[in-house]
Amino acid sequence: MYWLSKKRNIIGMLIPTLVIYTIFIILPIGMAVFYSFTKYSGIGKPDFIGAANYIRLFKDHIFWVSFKNTIIILAVDFALLMVAAFFAAILLNNRLIGANFCKALIFSPAIIAPIIVGIIWVYILDPKIGILNAVLKSIGLPSHLWIGGPVLSPYSIAFIYFWQQLGYIITIYIAGLKMIPTDVIEASTIDGASDWQRIRYIIFPMMKPQISTVAILVITGVFKIFEIVQQTTNGGPNHMSETLVTYSYSTTFSRSEYGYGMCLATITFVVSLIIVAIYSRAVRSKED
Amino acid sequence: MKRKKVMTTLLGVLTIASLFAGCGSQAGSNSASSSGAAATGADETATVSGSSESSMEAPKDGETVIKFGIHVADPKAQEAVTWNIVNAFNKKYDGKYQVEFEAAEKSAHDQNMKLEASDGTLPEIFWCDSAQAVDFSDAGYLLDLSDFLSSNKDTDAALDDSMKQAFQTDDGVQYGLPYQANVEGFFYNKKVLKDAGVAEPTEGTTFTEFLDMCKKLNDAKITPIAQGSTDNYAIWAFLMFLDRYGYSENIDKILNGKEKFNNKDMVACFDKMSELGKAKAFPENMSTLSYFDAKASFEAGQAAFIDTGAWDAAEFDEKLGDNIGFWWGPTFDDSKYSQTCAMKVPSAPLCVSAAVSKDKSVQDAVYAFLNYYYSKDAAAISYQGSVFPATNYKDIQISDTQYALKAVNAAISTEGWTSPKAQPDQVLNAATQTQLYDSMLGVMMGNYSSKDALQMIDDSLANS
Q1: Contacts of A150 in chain B (CB under 8 A)
Q2: ipTM over 0.95
Q3: B285 touches chain A (CB under 8 A)
Q4: pLDDT for B325-359, tens place per residue?
Q5: How many domains, chain A?
Q6: B287 vs A232: CB contact, 8 Å cut-off?
């Protein structure tokens, strides 16, 4: 322990991580920001064009569609994963018959590659070949354009992401629940606290670190949703289901507009930072 | 404590070592794939292309090895004709020259070429997206093939001027030569049409008549046109619509800023695509279908027409036999432009890395390959594989069982029908090209009005 407490040794141990972090995280972000001020097709040399890409971005209708879709997905998933996963974790943390089986079942989507998740859900949500519309038709209800239409696609993507992430988030919550001392819970029971009071005044406050972690994971996770969109709608029809990440990708690699694509990536990064900062500040001010 | 310290240090060393080992093997495979160094390169290529055939042998001593960057992951299966031509070349020049594939699916290939250009490891010959080839040329990455053509008269003569001009800059630099000839239009299933009581289209069938055919097919519960949208470039037959509304005549003016895409001719053209959408000519789930899904539904007899090109001819022969027919598409009464338009155009170019000129033996190998690629022998291999070569050799027979190719050949041979110099989308830069696809699909699916769709193309052109 003494060896580790020396500043020199701590710095020595940190250096490899810092070097790797700088090369693979900081440097690419810096390069992306640099390219966002250029016009570049990926071939030859980039031309510096100042803030033109950023000015273009604010006039770009598809950017705003992507932004709106990302916010819809974030709002839906934040609400669902924060709340539903929390209560599901409390439920699964009890000694119920089949609880372990349910845990395994709920966690299983989290181990499937996102691209496979997309394929699975295409067969469920596709307007023509999907199971969902077939079921709706069979019971006399109208079918809908769950994916590939102008309205429902972001909600469908949000639901798919919720389905995929639920087990993972529940696992974090259950880990938090396990850390709550049992004597505190037992004392509240002896004092006659109802289930709701126990959750409201004991479990919820003691789970704040896990809740904050989950919130950050959900926010950053939503801003990284890519494969599900690519596989279910490919951002279509006509970019109506693009998210900021998929729009950045298609602009960069399909349209070969590397400068503008990096501008979109930079804005996506900044927006996610701002949302995380707002959340962190809100949580901190409440704690104060 | 000491033991713990030793264990920690060991663990740290092991972690870093394993990390660098990982990086090392990654770097090794990359360099093999990009530089094509002898045996490792051959293994990598064989793996990527799915080939373990003896015909793709490791290079022998004294052989000059050149690399061919191709836009499919498995050239043997996906570009069988090119695979066969390369094999024939390797056999002919055994012990002297050998060509190896550097294979990746299109988007990965496009990105690889950009990266390899920037670090000086471009394959000697590579398939290049038309929209990017000019940028490669302007950046000095490509060899001017004018000297090659002037010193190889037979090859020069085998390529029509239109095939060469498609890849020339205004100042005469020949930055590429056509990979193949693309022939695009509507293939149709004769049996499906007959069962639905719909007559086969002819080269005089008008758009109004075509709408009527679509209605009858819908009544018979048959999808009129198999069309997807997730592979946005798959709009080939509809490029003919553009040409029949004067696209080729006016595109230079549009690109020079003297005219706009959003003009009354193009609005009328886009209105026709919109009308097809309203007439339910496309699948209900077009927005989630890929080109390959659409093709599967056509081959399964669920759709009467498909928008594609002659590259699918061999597959249609196998799946549909003599039920396959080919049609250039409807004619338009309200257009003042020629309606006798065909679409036999040069496909994307084969480009040669500028670095080739630095090594005489490599340049000789590349020139030998190009001469073979555009030879009559290679053209015969192309026809055998139901692919139209870029060359103009006339007396090569098409077999009786190549139904699709025969149908296409009959359409090409129609007297008085002419093709544009280049495929309409291929004269645009990548951003505008992608917007053209998006706009066309947008009006077909009813998401854009014609004017809005065309305005988006103008905006994209202005931004790029």
Answers
A1: 447
A2: no
A3: yes
A4: 999 999 999 999 999 988 989 989 999 999 999 99
A5: 1
A6: no
Residue A200 domain-assigned? yes
Measured in angstroms, the CA of B136 and the nearest CA of chain A are apart by: 6
In the predicted structure, residue A199 carries a pLDDT above the cut 80: yes
Which residues on A lie below 8 Å from B1 (Cβ)? Answer: 1-3
* Among B100, B28, B29, CA closest to B60: B100
- Residue A211 within any structural domain of the chain: yes
B12 Cα to chain A: minimum distance (Å): 9
The C-alpha of A86 sits at a distance from chain B's nearest C-alpha, in angstroms, of: 34
Judge whether residue B246 has pLDDT over 80: yes
Nearest Cα of chain B lies from the Cα of A67 at a distance, in angstroms, of 19
Tokens of residue A190, six digits: 């002896």
Contact B285 A56 (CB under 8 A): no
Region B111-138: what's the mean pLDDT?
92
Residues in chain B closer than 8 A to A126 (CB atoms): 285, 288
User: Count of CB atoms within 10 A of residue B277's CB?
Assistant: 18
Give, in order, the Cα–Cα distances in Å from B6 to each of A244, B2, B19, B37, B247.
48, 6, 20, 42, 75
Tell me which amino acid residue A120 is.
Answer: I
Q: Which residues of A touch B447 (CB under 8 A)?
A: 150, 237-238, 240
The answer to whether the Cβ–Cβ distance between B438 and A239 falls below 8 Å is: yes
**Percentage above 70 pLDDT, chain A:** 99
Count of beta carbons in the 10 Å neighbourhood of residue A159 = 18
The string of DSSP codes covering A143-211 is P--SSSSSSSHHHHHHHHHHHHHHHHHHHHHHHHHHHS-HHHHHHHHHTT--HHHHIIIIIHHHTHHHH
Q: Would you kindly state where each structural domain of chain B is located, as residue ranges?
A: 25-178+348-384, 182-345+403-463
pLDDT of A8 reads: 86
List the domain range (segments joined by +) for residue A118: 36-287
**Average pLDDT of B97-102?**
95
Which has the closest alpha carbon to B405: B329, B348, B344, B347?
B344
Interface test with B, best of A10, A41, A129, A234 (most B CBs within 10 A): A41
Could you tell me if B428 lies within 8 Å of chain A, comparing CB atoms? no
Superfamily of domain B25-178+348-384: Periplasmic binding protein-like II (3.40.190.10)
**pLDDT above 80 for B55:** no
What's the angle, vertex CA B188, arms to CA B182 and CA B194, rounded to 5? 165
Q: How far is A78 from A96, CA to CA, in rounded Å?
A: 27
Residue B162 or B185, more confident:
B185
The string of pLDDT tens digits covering residues A94-136 is 878 888 888 888 899 989 998 899 999 999 998 888 999 999 9
- Which of A39, A45, A123, A255 is best to mutate for the B interface (most B CBs within 10 A)? A255
- When pLDDT is averaged across residues B311-322 and rounded to a whole number, the result is 92
Q: Which residue has the higher pLDDT, A287 or A68?
A: A68
Residue A2, in any domain of the structure: no
pLDDT of residue B459: 94
Beta-carbon separation of A240 and B447 below 8 A: yes
Q: Give me the pLDDT at residue B87, please.
A: 96
- Is B288 close to A150, i.e. CB distance below 8 A? no
With CA atoms as reference, the chain B residue closest to A259 would be: B464
Q: Does B131 touch chain A (CB under 8 A)?
A: yes
d(CA B348, CA B423): 9
Q: Which residue among A122, A237, A256 places its CB closest to the CB of B132? A: A256
Whether residue A191 is contained in a domain is answered as yes
How confident is residue A39, by pLDDT bands cut at 50, 70 and 90? very high
The alpha carbon of B333 is separated from its chain's Cα centroid by a whole number of angstroms, namely 31
Give me chain B's average pLDDT, please.
86
CATH code for B182-345+403-463?
A: 3.40.190.10
Among all residues of chain A, which has the CA nearest to that of B110? A253
CA-to-CA distance for B423 and B184, rounded, in angstroms?
A: 9
Q: What is the CATH number of the domain that holds A139?
A: 1.10.3720.10
pTM: 0.81
